[in-house]
Specification:
alpha+beta; 4 helices; globular
C-alpha cells in the first residue's frame, strides 16, 4: 500500500463538522468513488465528526489517500481522534439501534456498515480514535 497524500481537518465547532463532510466529499471524488460510495462515506463522516465534537470535546479528522498495488484500488482512510472521556461501554455503543439521543441516530454501528474497514480504539479518560476506510 502506498500513501498518495494526507492531511488534517480540525473538528472543534459545528462549522468544522460541515467542513469535515466537505473535505471527505472532495477527497472521495479525487479517489474516483462512485456516487453511492461517496454518499456512504460522507454519511459516516457526518456521524463520526459530530461524535468527535459532541462527545470528545473536539479533535481532528486525519485523512489519507492510499493506492493498493495488489488490486489497483484507491482508498480513502479517515481517522477521527479526540482526547475526551473515551467510550465507557464499547459493547453498548456498538449495539445496533442504540443512540445517545443526538446526532443522526446512525450510531457507530451505522457508520461501520457504511465503510469497508472500521477500527475503534478508546480508553476511558484518554479519548477515542476511530479509523474508517473505503476503497474504490
Amino acid at each position: 500500500m502506498t500513501l498518495r497524500s494526507s492531511g488534517t481537518q480540525p473538528i472543534h465547532i459545528e462549522q468544522d463538522v460541515v467542513l469535515a463532510r466537505q473535505t471527505a466529499r472532495k477527497l472521495a471524488t479525487e479517489c474516483g468513488m462512485r456516487l453511492i460510495d461517496l454518499t456512504k462515506m460522507v454519511t459516516a463522516v457526518s456521524e463520526l465528526a459530530r461524535n468527535t465534537m459532541v462527545y470528545g470535546g473536539g479533535g481532528d479528522m486525519d485523512w489519507e489517500i492510499h493506492d493498493r498495488e495488489d488490486d489497483h484500488k484507491v482508498g480513502l482512510r479517515l481517522t477521527f481522534r479526540d482526547e475526551g472521556p473515551g467510550i465507557a461501554d464499547i459493547k453498548l455503543a456498538m449495539t445496533d439501534g442504540w443512540t445517545s439521543g443526538s446526532g443522526m441516530g446512525l450510531g457507530l454501528t451505522g457508520a461501520k456498515r457504511l465503510v469497508d474497514e472500521f477500527e475503534l480504539e478508546t480508553e476511558p479518560g484518554k479519548g477515542t480514535r476511530i479509523t474508517i476506510t473505503r476503497w474504490t
